[in-house]
Amino acid sequence: MKNDPTIDIDIKRAPTSKIDSIDFENLKFGHIFTDHMMTCDYKDGSWQAPKIMPYGPISMEPSAKVFHYGQAVFEGMKAFKDDQDQIWMFRPKDNFNRINISAKRMAIPEFPEDYFFTALDALLKMDKDWIKKGFGNSLYIRPFVIATEPGVSASPGTNYKFMIICSPAKSYYNGEVRVKFSEDYSRAADGGVGFAKAAGNYGAQFYPTNLAKEEGYQQIIWTDANTHSFLEEAGTMNIFFRINDTLITTPTNDRILDGITRKSLIALAEENNINVEIRKVPVQEILDAAKEGTLKEIFGTGTAATVNPISGFGYKGDKHELPKLTDSYATFFKDKLMKIQYNLAEDKHGWRYLVK
Ligand SMILES: Cc1ncc(COP(=O)(O)O)c(C=O)c1O
């Protein structure tokens, strides 16, 4: 996981920076991008030298395969700045591995690790002023790969573009998040691409999520496609349930993303003597626990929000509110994780990566 100084990156700097025109106090997530981006083309059977250039539009033929067959995968990761101006990332090797797992499933050639870390470090150093200090400030990093080859034949492309774009982010209070347990629609099926960060997994959720929004929910917790009786994950978050003082989360499989925040939280729970059960989560068990008053919390985990508490859920027309706790596990884990991310706590697991 090291950058390699012998890799030649073709760097073209932006003539001026946009940074002075940005209101860093009022950032809407994922709307503003930094001065530079990384791009790397795959052609003639190999990845060419990475380039860093001013952020801006790219041109492609309208017949490029990504537009027709959705051959596209992506990642989401963050960089943080500590009080000494050092830049840290959180488990970026896991994101790197995962984009290649996703790529393989979508018949996209895997990207080399030394290109990834060399180009990412160079990009972050060039745009370092966009990473603001202070708990909650971060830079959201979006690596992605698209099939650029022109031609509408339904077959994998032979030309691809790997890119990294970066967007400054603030920690938000997301407001009260209420979720709907899915009754009919499915996000992923056995043998499908649910475990991959394939673009189409996300586009396919928009319509059912809009329907849920009309009923007053912000997100859906997807259930298994066969029976809709087991809770799986949310659109961009893995999900944990707390019954009494035990946490329960579903095992990952070919329908569920192997979330990096999820597995970090499981490790932190274990070292803090909080019991975690990794097993299937029946909808009925959660309904019963809500009725008996033993369901204490539901929260989601993911790079964008770290830990996102859920205030209520709906199922088959019934709405359930969750208690407001002063000692929630969600707050406990969010604080623990963020302190590691911002270099404010010991990093026992070697999760932090220093950008050099
Ligand atoms: C479907 C899905 N589940 C879970 C997650 C959370 O994963 P991570 O913690 O690695 O960000 C994400 C976000 O990446 C996601 O898109």
From TrEMBL:
SUPFAM superfamilies for the chain: D-aminoacid aminotransferase-like PLP-dependent enzymes (SSF56752)
Keyword Repeat listed: no
Pathway(s) the chain acts in: Amino-acid biosynthesis; L-valine biosynthesis; L-valine from pyruvate: step 4/4; Amino-acid biosynthesis; L-leucine biosynthesis; L-leucine from 3-methyl-2-oxobutanoate: step 4/4; Amino-acid biosynthesis; L-isoleucine biosynthesis; L-isoleucine from 2-oxobutanoate: step 4/4
PROSITE patterns, per the entry: AA_TRANSFER_CLASS_4 (PS00770)
Catalytic activity: L-leucine + 2-oxoglutarate = 4-methyl-2-oxopentanoate + L-glutamate; L-isoleucine + 2-oxoglutarate = (S)-3-methyl-2-oxopentanoate + L-glutamate; L-valine + 2-oxoglutarate = 3-methyl-2-oxobutanoate + L-glutamate
Keywords: Amino-acid biosynthesis, Aminotransferase, Branched-chain amino acid biosynthesis, Pyridoxal phosphate, Transferase
Modified sites of kind N6-(pyridoxal phosphate)lysine: 197
InterPro entries: Aminotrans_IV (IPR001544), Aminotrans_IV_CS (IPR018300), Aminotransferase-like (IPR036038), B_amino_transII (IPR005786), BCAT-like_C (IPR043132), BCAT-like_N (IPR043131), BCAT_family (IPR033939)
Biological process, per Gene Ontology: isoleucine biosynthetic process; L-leucine biosynthetic process; L-valine biosynthetic process
Gene Ontology molecular function terms on file: L-isoleucine-2-oxoglutarate transaminase activity; L-leucine-2-oxoglutarate transaminase activity; L-valine-2-oxoglutarate transaminase activity
Xref: Pfam families: Aminotran_4
Top-rank taxon, per record: Bacteria
Cofactor: pyridoxal 5'-phosphate
Enzyme class: transferase
Entry-linked PANTHER family: BRANCHED-CHAIN-AMINO-ACID AMINOTRANSFERASE (PTHR11825:SF44), SUBGROUP IIII AMINOTRANSFERASE (PTHR11825)
UniProt similarity note: Belongs to the class-IV pyridoxal-phosphate-dependent aminotransferase family.
Protein name: Branched-chain-amino-acid aminotransferase
Species of provenance: Gillisia hiemivivida
